[in-house]
Inverse folding.
């Protein structure tokens, strides 16, 4: 198999450098953010190992690849600004953070690789950004059932490289944002990709999910041979953009990895 493109850093990639000191950024949209009290911040510290109120870190975690916001960034502006960034490493931490924010009526925005181009991971009303990148890593690879169990914070290119190298399998989901996006982002945004005509879109690949609801309740979907009468809960969360729950883990279908991987470019003299 030929070598693929170089792997990304396994963490969010800034879309463009801010035009000044990140600690001095201003908010372009001018929406008054919800104040997070010192008591709430102390409570968040008790629930999550890594919590920061550093303005520069909050500014970076509050933006994605929204093109118009890149123009604002040149003037050292972000669309909106979170007051707190929490970086959980377990689903239990995610649940505790969600419960605190729900109880105190604090806006909570889930953000992974932040590769979106529509500003959907921008914390419009401030509050807390929950960075899911600490929820990364392969949990298991079942080659009998051809199912992968993986953390939602796993970056796509690192995942695919490990699957092909160590297990000779592939998920087959290959969006243009591969080194910038996480598994949770694929699911939350109902992603497609260049190989979707072969392997399907992400809703065809997902078998089940681990999700934290707004009040901190943890649920698991999928894993049943047939659907009962009623909505497919897995598909309810696929494409929900983080509004119905925070995906912390997923079971994805696997396929044997191709024995060869070839790329080519084609040009034509006329339409």
């Amino acid at each position: 198999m030929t070598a693929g493109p170089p792997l990304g850093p396994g963490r969010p990639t800034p879309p463009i450098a801010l035009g000044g000191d990140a600690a001095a950024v201003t908010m372009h949209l001018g929406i008054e953010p919800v104040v997070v009290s010192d008591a709430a911040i102390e409570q968040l510290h008790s629930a999550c190992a890594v919590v920061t109120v550093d303005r520069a870190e909050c500014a970076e975690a509050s933006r994605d690849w929204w093109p118009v916001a890149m123009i604002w960034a040149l003037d050292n502006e972000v669309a909106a600004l979170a007051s707190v960034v929490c970086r959980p490493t377990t689903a239990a931490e995610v649940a505790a953070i969600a419960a605190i924010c729900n109880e105190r009526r604090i806006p909570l925005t889930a953000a992974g690789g932040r590769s979106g181009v529509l500003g959907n991971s921008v914390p419009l009303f401030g509050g807390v950004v929950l960075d899911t990148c600490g929820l990364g890593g392969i949990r298991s690879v079942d080659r009998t059932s051809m199912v992968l169990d993986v953390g939602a914070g796993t970056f796509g290119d690192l995942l695919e490289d490990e699957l092909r190298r160590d297990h000779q399998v592939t998920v087959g989901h290959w969006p243009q944002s591969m080194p910038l996006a996480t598994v949770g982002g694929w699911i939350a945004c109902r992603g497609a990709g260049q190989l979707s005509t072969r392997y399907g879109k992400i809703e065809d690949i997902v078998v089940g999910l681990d999700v934290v609801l707004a009040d901190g309740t943890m649920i698991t979907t999928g894993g049943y041979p047939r659907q009962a009468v009623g909505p497919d809960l897995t598909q309810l969360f696929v494409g929900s953009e983080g509004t119905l729950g925070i995906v912390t883990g997923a079971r994805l279908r696997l396929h044997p990895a191709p024995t060869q991987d070839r790329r080519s470019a084609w040009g034509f003299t006329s339409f």
In short: The two ends are 34 Å apart (CA to CA). The chain has two domains: 22-134, 135-256.
